[in-house]
Design brief:
The protein is an alpha+beta fold. About 45% of the residues lie in helices and about 15% in strands.
């Protein structure tokens, strides 16, 4: 390409002019070569193959950058932190961690991203698209990495181990989160009430207690739930599904926490102890009711005669004396 041609293309970038338009998705490009490469994303064609591992690429430039990963050569160095990269594109993306630049914006919620691929993944939260399906149980995922992690649950593979308690996990991310149970670290703080949370997802769910948002709706009775997991448990009240089974007596439960509590009837475990009289209880709820014998609290009041009770069951029994 002549130097005048290169200058002309460069000048187009300043004017914001993109004369080459894709007829399929209307995306525009500075050069015809970029448009030609883009069209391959619609056909799925990847004509450039790596001679080392047979991985294929849309452009020869991407193939050549990939070859650097086999050679171990990392000629691109960050001038801020001196981290090295095998291709210039990865360096450009890395530099945004220093500048804070996020050039890719979601047109639905205006959230911004440093990488275009992160934007594509995010868009699936709006479309509900889950293109990655487990071949064992048909569960679908929005990201390939989540599918790979899920597949380990079928294989029983847990390659990541906590260095403190030796508990094993299927993903390194789970280890990092688990370590906070040892350190007590809660890096995510609510801007409304300053409550701190271990994970960002826990904080997002907590924020709904302030906004009142319940984005998950039951298609049978229209009940709304704060989390997807709460909705899945609720749906079992309609289907009668009880997937959690006791291995001792084969009793089944709709929720895993109900099974955990039930197992204590076999083990005799009573982990909740009264600080006043040292009585032990099977559940936290039972302990809270017991504590009212010490405090005298009676939070359940009859709407007819105003008599108060320490337990909801006692109030229900009392109401029959009026009817």
């Amino acid at each position: 390409m002549s130097s005048s041609r290169t200058l002309h293309i460069h000048q187009l970038s300043h004017r914001g002019k993109r004369p080459f338009e894709c007829t399929l998705c209307n995306k525009k490009f500075f050069t015809k070569g970029n448009l030609t490469a883009h069209l391959l994303t619609h056909t799925g064609e990847k004509p450039f193959k790596c001679t080392e591992c047979n991985k294929t690429f849309v452009t020869i430039g991407h193939r050549d950058e990939h070859l650097q990963t086999h050679s171990g050569n990392k000629p691109f160095e960050c001038t801020v932190c001196n981290k090295k990269f095998s291709c210039g594109r990865n360096l450009r993306v890395h530099l945004r961690t220093h500048t804070g630049e996020k050039p890719f914006e979601c047109t639905t919620c205006n959230k911004k991203f440093a990488r275009n691929e992160d934007l594509h993944v995010h868009l699936r939260t709006h479309t509900g698209e889950k293109p990655f399906e487990c071949t064992v149980c048909n569960k679908k995922f929005s990201q390939a990495c989540n599918l790979r992690t899920h597949l380990r649950t079928h294989a029983g593979e847990t390659p990541f181990e906590c260095t403190i308690c030796n508990k094993k996990f299927s993903h390194s991310r789970y280890v990092r989160v688990h370590l906070r149970t040892h350190t007590g670290e809660k890096p995510y703080e609510c801007t409304v009430c300053n409550k701190k949370c271990v994970t960002g997802s826990t904080l997002r769910v907590h924020l709904r207690t302030h906004t009142g948002e319940k984005p998950f709706e039951c298609t049978v009775c229209n009940k709304k739930c704060v989390t997807g997991s709460t909705l899945r448990v609720h749906l079992r009240t309609h289907t009668g599904e009880k997937p959690f089974e006791c291995t001792t007596c084969n009793k089944k439960f709709a929720r895993s926490d109900e099974l955990h509590v039930h197992l204590r009837t076999h083990t005799g475990e009573k982990p909740f102890e009264c600080t006043v009289c040292n009585k032990k209880c099977v559940t936290g709820g039972t302990l809270r009711v017991h504590l009212r014998t010490h405090t005298g609290e009676k939070p359940y009041e009859c709407s007819i005669c105003n008599k108060k009770f320490s337990q909801a069951g006692n109030l229900r029994t009392h109401l029959r004396t009026h009817t």
